[in-house]
Amino acid sequence: MGLFDVNNIFSLSHDPAAFLEASLQTFHCQYQENPVYREWCQLTGADPAKCKTLVSIPSLPISFFKSREVVSGQFQPEVVFESSGTTQQLTSRHLVKELALYRRSFLEAFCLFYGKVTEWCVLGLLPSYLERQHSSLVMMVDELIRASGHPDSGFYLYDHQQLSDVLQQQETKGQKTLLIGVTFALLDFAASHPQQLIHTVVMETGGMKGRRKELTRTEVHRLLTEGLGVTSVHSEYGMTELLSQAYSTGEGRFVCPPWMKVLVRDEEDPFVVKETGRGILQVIDLANRYSVSFIATEDVGQVFEDGSFEVWGRLDNSDIRGCSQLVV
After folding, report:
1. How many CB atoms lie within 10 A of CB 241?
2. Can you give the pLDDT at residue 62?
3. Which of residues 2 and 292 earns the better pLDDT score?
4. Mean pLDDT, to the nearest integer, of 207-233?
C-alpha cells in the first residue's frame, strides 16, 4: 500500500471501480501515515479491514485543520495554505508537501473543463499573490494568469475602470476571457461597470458572508447576468483544505474531475453516508495524498445520480470561512 503513487490519479477516467481502488489504497496509506486521521478512525470505531466501499471510508471533520497538523508522513511543507477569517477566528492550515501536485491538479482540471489555458486571457478580481501568499485560490489564479501567457492577464481588484477597459479590448478582439473573482467583488464590478460580455466567462468563487447582505445563488447569478450581459455564471468549488476543484458551467451544478468525488451524509446521523441525496457534503480528493483525502465539510447540498452536486449553504454553527473574508 505504501508504494501508491499519487500521480496515478491523473490517469483515472470516470470509472467507478478504478476510483474505488485508488480511494481504498489512499485510505490505507493515510490510516498508517496520518496520526490525526488514524485517531479519528479509531474514535469512530472504523475497522480498516471492513472498509470496502466509498461510503464506509471515514471522513475527517474539516475543523481538524484548525487545531491539528493534518499530515500523512513526515515532511517539511513547501507551502502552508491558510483560510481567511477574522482575527477572532481560528483559521485552517493545510500543510502542502509538493506544490507541483497542486499545480498539476488545478491545471489538469482547468484543461478538462475549459481547454488549454494558453487560449485564455485570465482576469482576477482577487488580491494579488503578493498580498495573499497563503491563499490557495489566489495562488491558483496567479498560476493560471502566468500559464495563459496573455499580456493582459492579471489581477484587477483595485481598478474597475482598467478592468472594464481590458474586457472591452478582449471583446473587440473576440478573445476568450475568464473573469474570476470572489462573489461580492464581481457584484460590485457589475454594478459600477455594467456591460455586455459575449466572449467572456464570468466565474464566481463564493464569498459573501460578513461583506454585504446575504444573497441566494439565484439572486447573485441574476445580478451578474443582468449586469455583465452573460447568459450564465460559472462557479468554482474549492477550499483551503483541498487540492482539487469542481466547476459549474451554470445553474450551480458542480462537476468533479475524475480524481475527486462528493458524497453526502445524513444531517441527523453522521454515520449514514450515501453516494446520492441531500445532506452534508463529504469530499474525496485523491490529490490530498499527503494530508487527508476524505473530508467531512460543513456544506449542505445535494448529490445527483451522475455525481454532480449543488451547494446550498453552510451549517448554521459553522464559522465564516474561506474566501468570504479573502478581501479585507
Report:
1. 27
2. 97
3. 292
4. 83
On whether the CB atoms of residues 237 and 262 are closer than 8 A, the answer is no
Cα distance between residue 35 and residue 133, in whole Å? 28
The C-alpha cell at 123 is 482576469
Of the chain, the end-to-end C-alpha distance in Å amounts to 44
Nearest Cα neighbor of 190 from 158, 236, 222 is 222
Pairwise CA distance, residues 147 & 243, whole Å: 18
Three-state secondary-structure class, residue 139: helix
The count of C-alpha atoms lying within 13 angstroms of the C-alpha of 327, restricted to the half-sphere facing its C-beta, is: 22
Instruction: DSSP letter for 319, please.
Output: P
Q: C-alpha 253: how far from its chain's center?
A: 14
| DSSP per position, 181-235 | E-HHHHHHHHHHS----SSEEEEE----TTTS----HHHHHHHHHHHH--S--EE
Instruction: Report residue 317's pLDDT band, with 50, 70 and 90 as the boundaries.
Output: low
Which H or E run includes 30? Answer: helix 16-33
Give CA–CA dist 293/297, Å, rounded. 12
Residues 6+ away with beta carbon under 8 Å from 233: 202, 203, 204, 220, 221, 224, 225, 250
Task: Please check whether residue 96 is in contact with residue 78, taking contact to mean a CB–CB distance below 8 angstroms.
Answer: yes
Residue 282 to residue 294: CA distance in whole angstroms:
7
DSSP run (H or E) holding 295: strand 294-303
C-alpha cell at 206: 463564493
> Which H or E run includes 314?
strand 309-314
Nearest to 97 by CA among 292, 296, 323: 292
**Measured over all CA atoms, what is the biggest interatomic distance in the chain, rounded to whole angstroms?**
61
175-203 tens-digit pLDDT: 999 999 999 999 999 999 999 999 999 99
- pTM of structure: 0.92
Amino acid in the structure at residue 325: Q
C-alpha cell at 236: 468554482
Question: Beta-strand (E) ranges in 48-171?
Answer: 60-61, 79-82, 93-96, 121-125, 154-155
- Round to whole Å and give the CA distance between 187 and 193: 10
